[in-house]
Write a structure and sequence with these properties.
Elements: H1 2-17, E1 47-51, H2 62-71, E2 75-79, H3 85-95, E3 101-105, H4 108-119, H5 127-133, H6 135-140, H7 143-148, E4 150-151, E5 154-155, E6 158-161, E7 168-173, H8 174-180, H9 188-201, E8 211-213, H10 225-228, E9 235-238, E10 241-244, H11 251-263, H12 276-284, E11 288-294, H13 298-308, E12 314-316, E13 329-331, E14 335-340, H14 348-358, H15 361-369, E15 376-379, E16 382-385, H16 389-394, H17 409-417, H18 421-432, E17 439-441, H19 451-473, H20 480-504
Length: about 500
């Protein structure tokens, strides 16, 4: 918390003292034509962007070369860290480091952070730039998308609308279940029994290193289990009202459940310090029986675990039902990512021209799908990937996109989910073989700018997650949950809930 407060102060000071002096004229150089491939790179400035983490270097991935050839712009791609990227982002924004564009994930927390930067004056108003240099942007993005990232009548971000699907759940060692003669669990009670059997029978032969269930220290609400307690998303509907998890009536039962798993060593006793990489490692080295993950990560996890344990089989657990029949898997909605242009950017006009050139119809299709007959075929009115080249050269293509052709992308996207049979099987299980009512969309993901929510979201999320970890760990007193709720409301929670529900009543959700 101290670090976040320091970052907030640093950000405020930097914005007051430094950003007013930033170049707002765009730093335009060279020919202004945006026709694909018509200009030599030397006539245009080199752009510098900061993107979310991915496993491969953006700069050497084949899509970077395609974009350079088609747009005429050479781009240096830097990455945010995989763990706690917001801390790094706060430092970048506060210091005025010269990035021409910065992209963040489209989570509610990231959207709130984006809005906070905008109202503090750290971002560029894109409205006049898009009007002058962005005909393809205006054609590709819907009014809903632009409105969701508009604050006080000014567009501050370009959003990539996500495909609405269930992104992940709980991945389990199917071979351990088979060894013990157990079916996949379908209720919370059955899940606990499976963990008990993993602990007692030790099917992995780990002895004292055995970990029935592990989670991330930064996410004390693992997918599927949280849904069984009515806590599927960060905000959930309760009796017609949207409530954050901190104020949900089932939170006490959830905390007691998770704390019980921890005390009985069914939950990884070192979960507090788990990062993304070592959580995956605990599964692939054969220690952990269950971890939360996404269907997009299944293939590399299968490949990694097979190197250590050739007999291993992985499967997603079906949607678990709680004691009162509650269940839920978080369904993606809103934005996959949001791209903003800092006030400190040197090449504002050029970055918009680059984005617009990226959204030119043939360039966009080439980036997403590749070349017909080489990367994909079109069969039975569907795009089908040709592997291994599609996976090798287009697997990360979506991470390069800034804005989407919202009419064409859902059609092109079908090739991405079919590019790997293991991944498609996982996607199909979570999205086509679970009860329809299991998929629950976060109602706030496409909400317009909400001042209280944007101002308070990051600090309240940090307070909530830190408190939940402490409660699960058992290092707080019995009255801590009520004290936490009082603090939550006092530090902006009450005002945020009121604002959110004033909007929700008129939103048509």
């Amino acid at each position: 918390m101290l670090q976040r407060k320091w970052l907030s102060v640093l950000l405020s000071v930097a914005l007051m003292l430094g950003l007013a002096a930033c170049n707002t004229g765009g730093g335009q150089q060279g020919d202004t034509s945006t026709a694909p491939g018509q200009e030599a790179n030397a006539t245009k400035p080199k752009l510098k962007v900061l993107y979310p983490s991915q496993p491969e270097d953006y700069n050497t991935y084949p899509v970077a070369a395609v974009l350079e050839e088609r747009t005429g712009y050479k781009v240096q791609y830097d990455m945010l860290p995989a763990d706690n990227p917001q801390d790094k982002l706060n430092i970048v924004i506060a210091s005025g480091e010269e990035y021409d564009a910065i992209a963040v994930r489209g989570t509610s927390a990231d959207k709130a952070l984006f809005a906070d930067y905008a109202v503090r004056g750290a971002l560029t108003d894109l409205t006049p730039l898009i009007d002058e240099y962005g005909p393809n942007i205006k054609k590709a993005l819907s009014e809903v998308t632009l409105d969701a990232l508009t604050i006080d009548g000014k567009i501050y971000g370009i959003g990539n609308r996500t495909m609405e699907f269930v992104g992940g759940g709980l991945l389990i060692r199917q071979d351990w279940l088979d060894q013990l003669g157990l079916p996949l669990p379908t209720t919370v009670d059955e899940f606990v029994y499976v963990l008990e059997q993993f602990q007692e029978k030790d099917p992995g032969g780990n002895g004292g290193q055995n970990i029935p269930f592990s989670i991330l220290g930064t996410d004390p609400f693992p997918a599927n289990i949280s849904g069984a307690f009515g806590l599927t998303n960060a905000w959930n509907e309760v009796d017609g009202e949207l409530l954050p998890r901190a104020l949900a009536p089932t939170l006490e039962d959830y905390v007691a459940f998770m704390n019980d798993l921890f005390q009985r060593k069914l939950l990884d006793n070192d979960f507090v310090i788990n990062k993304v990489a070592n959580l995956k490692e605990k599964l692939t080295n054969g220690q952990a029986g269950v971890i939360p993950t996404t269907w997009a990560e299944v293939t590399p996890l299968v490949e990694a675990i097979k190197k250590n344990h050739p007999e291993a089989k992985l499967a997603f657990i079906p949607t678990l039902q709680g004691a009162d029949g509650q269940m839920g898997l978080s369904a993606a909605s809103g934005f996959d990512r949001i791209t903003m242009i800092p006030k400190s950017a040197k090449h504002k006009e050029d970055i918009i021209k680059w984005i617009d050139a990226m959204l030119e119809e043939e360039t966009f299709k080439l980036v997403v799908l590749g070349e017909e007959g080489k990367h994909y075929t079109y069969e039975n009115e569907a795009y089908v990937p040709i592997n291994p080249i599609f996976t090798d050269e287009r697997n990360r293509a979506n991470n390069f996109l800034i804005g989407l052709d919202e009419e064409k992308y859902p059609i092109y996207w079908q090739a991405r989910v079919r590019k790997d049979p293991v991944m498609f099987e996982a996607y199909e299980f979570l999205n086509m073989k679970q009860p329809e009512e299991a998929a629950q969309r976060d109602a706030l993901r496409l909400a317009p700018y909400l001042p209280e929510f944007s101002k308070n979201s990051q600090s309240l999320d940090t307070l909530s997650n830190d408190t939940m970890v402490n409660l699960i760990f058992g290092s707080t007193s019995a009255g801590s949950l009520e004290s936490f709720r009082q603090r939550f409301n006092a530090e902006g929670g009450e005002a945020t809930v009121q604002e959110v529900n004033d909007w929700y009543k008129t939103s048509g959700n």
